## 1
Amino acid sequence: MGHNSVGQGIGVSGSMSNRGWTILLIGAILLTGCRRPAQVKRASRPNGDSGQTELALSGEVVDGVRVVPVRAFSFDWAPNPVVIVAAESVKLVVRSDDTTHGIVIPDLEINEKLLPGQPVEIEFIAPEPGAYDFFCSVVCGWGHNSMTGYLLVLEEDGTGELGMAQPMPLREKPPQRQFVKDYRFEDLVPHLDWPDGSRSFESGQKLFVEMTCSKCHSMEGSDNLGGPNLARADLKLSRAELLREILEPSKRIDDKYRPWTFIADGRAIVGIILEHSDQHYLVQENLGEASAPIKIMSDDLEEEPSPAELSLMPAQLLSAMSIAEIQDLLAYVLAKGDPRHESYQGNTSGE
Ligand code: HEC
Ligand SMILES: [Cu+2]
């Protein structure tokens, strides 16, 4: 493969012009845990090896700045990884295609909310070569936990050649479930009659984490995650009521958890009021991902705050589960995380 064909090969990704080295990635290691084998891939000169993954630089350079359009959608990013060169000026133009997401790049101290259809421009100087994780800061649905991505920063060796000095593990995305169905209440009501002793505690416990519930709800007796504590003694929901709460979170919202919309400094902030005085409001915008509450001074308000209709709990959290899994999750919440609950014991006295 000569220079020209390399140049053409990467031409699809934008104007790479004379920096046209294809990045070839080779090698493999096993990562531990539940991940599938991930590949360690090494950037090297293009050498005509076939069957290698090719990575191209992202976006294009305009007036000395690498401008990269990045799409956020349920539940991934494109491009992913975002490939840039160390020390260059970068502008990410990040936009959400569907619902509200957010982008956090912890190492670069970047944290921006992404409202649908409102692109956000993020400018920075590319850091040292390496891989920098980013993820979604808004718990946006059942696949939120797999909405991860990373910046791959390449190094330039002085001759214009790009690559990584050290073999570079390419991150693999956490495995993602398959969408099953946007269940309606009527679809699931006929499946609420499971007999005692029939449900799996382990499965329910695992789903409570996997489906993001544990990001906002504690089963250990506290409210400190932002959403109501689901193990509290005075919470008594029937199976059908619980199902309704999960499928239609906005239908009934306790005043304490009602989000309010604030318009201040030309921007809209939607969140739960943690604290309120004559002078200010303290508002929690995102639940379930670390983010500091926002202090809004009453004097800065451009309008009276208004109650929002949408709960901060995402809808359609059950859409990637089988009926049996939904039963396990409901049983786990009804059992308040207690493995001694009837749902797990072999007696047959119905609930
Ligand atoms: C992003 C945060 C968030 C996530 C994720 C989340 N919830 Fe919620 N949940 C809330 C908030 C806030 C409320 C209170 C407002 C409301 O009712 O919508 C709530 C309310 C509830 C209630 C009613 C509790 C009560 O006191 O009446 C139940 C039950 C519930 N959630 C279960 C779940 C389950 C099960 C999951 C996972 C499938 C889940 N939630 C995921 C934030 C969340
Ligand atoms: Cu998200």
Note: Confidence is low (pLDDT under 50) at residues 1-52.
## 2
Amino acid sequence: MGEPISDPGLMQQQLAELQQRLAQAQRLTALGELLSITTHEFNNILMTIINYAKLGLRHSDPQTQQKAFEKILTAAQRAARISHSILGMAKNRSGNLEPTNLVGLLEDTLLLLERELNKYRISVEKHYQPVPPVLANGNQIQQVLLNLIINARQAMPQGGRLTLKLWHEPATSMVHLMIRDTGCGIPPEFLPRIFDPFFTTKTGQDATGKGGTGLGLAMCKEIIQAHQGRIRVESTPGRGTAFTLMLPQAQPTAELSSLPVPLRSSQGLMPPMANAPQ
Ligand SMILES: Nc1ncnc2c1ncn2[C@@H]1O[C@H](COP(=O)(O)OP(=O)(O)OP(=O)(O)O)[C@@H](O)[C@H]1O
Ligand SMILES: [Mg+2]
């Protein structure tokens, strides 16, 4: 430990450096998590393919062979869809915001977590209203979706229901996405702290190797703020939690070019609320 710092300028500089390092650590954590999820998924798909290929070779009757081929085809098609969505992410590595289809991002994220949600007996209910594209960085928003859905899954160790609702508010030009679980909920005294870096109630990684650093929601908050969006939470202990994201709708290109920068007045993060999810 160095000398206590008395120079406010130096303190500011050190704080900025620390914030930058934290942001980098968060990005690495997110990347590591994505890598771990996709590797697990591909490994699982390979196991399915290998096992059904063996089954087909062992049994010469047409029905068994037909079933084996069908299973192999379905598994391989799933792998192709996953690699397609990962390649899409790899293409957009800049921090640029562009018109982005939220339904596509949600579906890609669900595809990655499908097996895990099935394993924990979590049903998924979708209520998607037609919404315009949002002005977003797809990779970053997918990180937010992964974090929120993994948190929801971890809050329902005995199974439950995940509800995804998507709607548009023309008056504010915002697209809303609600991710609601029927999990353990968040005690009111924790609600104001859940977006703090390193705040966690988890004792470490779970059986799937996820969770426990307390960086997930801090990163979500930072990403949504950088999008001039909002994130809010409502939770009832014992009943469940709902996170709602609000993201600015992308303007049609003609309007976009005539708008001053920044595109919208700053709309900060709404304070967490302790209401019951409707
Ligand atoms: N859907 C939810 N239901 C119940 N509690 C939640 C939910 N989402 C977040 N929490 C609470 O907020 C805390 C912080 O969440 P956050 O995602 O930031 O960190 P984490 O999940 O503990 O670790 P990680 O960095 O791996 O995401 C959690 O430890 C949990 O107590
Ligand atoms: Mg988390």
Note: Strands lie at 98-100, 122-128, 134-136, 160-169, 174-181, 230-236, 240-248.
